[in-house]
Amino acid sequence: MENCCECKQKQEENTNVKPLQVQQTDNPQTSPTIQNSFHRRHLPEGCIAFSSSEGRKLFMEAINSSDNYMQIYFPLAEQFITQAEPAYCGLATLAMCLNALQIDPGRLWKGPWRWFSEELLDCCKPLSVAKEKGISLTEFVCLARCNGVLAEDYRATNDFTLEQFRDIVKQSCATSSEIVVLNYSRKVLGQTGDGHFSPIGGYHAERDMVLLMDVARFKYPPHWVKLFSVHVFEAMRLVVKAMNKPRGLVILRENPHATDSTLLQLKNCNQENCPDNKQGVAAVGSAPRSCCYRPSAAEASAVTNSSVATQL
């Protein structure tokens, strides 16, 4: 399975950043695992931290340009979160995007409030499994559709061109009503780990760079990376051996057909319909729609007509 967020200890050990070293102590409040722990990572060459001098300069240039492909930054920044578990990059990214698009989950979060958090995304794959293995691109799309948004996914096959990718990024970043989420390999960017999900928070046209709003903020800060060369485009094209497929991207849009009354009709997730479910596991929670909801003909037409590239 093409799982994301492969943040295993063995992957962390193969870096030039040494874990924290502490002296042995009899203090019962000191955990022995602190000797093998980590506090953040240094971004590799080619990744520019958002808060660095150059990162701030890129932000100001992009936002003051005539094209201004930074419109999507503000709704995402309002909802920027840190994933709660090492393998929750997909769930955290989706929760962040659903809140940024102002989607009503149709069920309670805490107290009287309806709000998306990772633990509410409990259909398509049990949270206990997602906590250990993460989720695949297919499961991400399933979860998005179950929770009331239009999700249009693209695999970065040989037929998917750089120009198509750039056009999708420009169209999304020029509006605050749709979000592009990338599923890519960290290895290609020179980062530790492998499969990961991140939303794009803006585009600098002159430098051809995108701003990745990385939800693994305990590891890497949000950062700018090149669209082409050995960066984001190639990071999506790396084939997942278990699936024999490349990674890709998902465009999330508000679903005009998902009315308030529809969202408030809670239905149990039918995991038997999930594309990656081979065992027919029983439902583990409630979702606004039947699991792996498929758009109606009208919705599918709306997605197709608004697309700037051929769906893969």
TrEMBL record:
Keywords: Cadmium, Metal-binding, Transferase. It comes from the Eukaryota. GO terms for biological process: cellular detoxification of cadmium ion; detoxification of copper ion; phytochelatin biosynthetic process. Its EC number is 2.3.2.15. Residues 33-257 form the Peptidase C83 domain. It holds the Pfam family Phytochelatin. Gene3D superfamilies: Phytochelatin synthase, N-terminal domain (3.90.70.30). Transmembrane segments: none annotated. It is an enzyme of class 2 (transferase). One of its GO terms (molecular function) is glutathione gamma-glutamylcysteinyltransferase activity. InterPro entries: Papain-like_cys_pep_sf (IPR038765), PCS-like (IPR040409), PCS_N (IPR007719), PCS_N_sf (IPR038156). PANTHER family: GLUTATHIONE GAMMA-GLUTAMYLCYSTEINYLTRANSFERASE. This is glutathione gamma-glutamylcysteinyltransferase. It comes from Phytophthora megakarya.
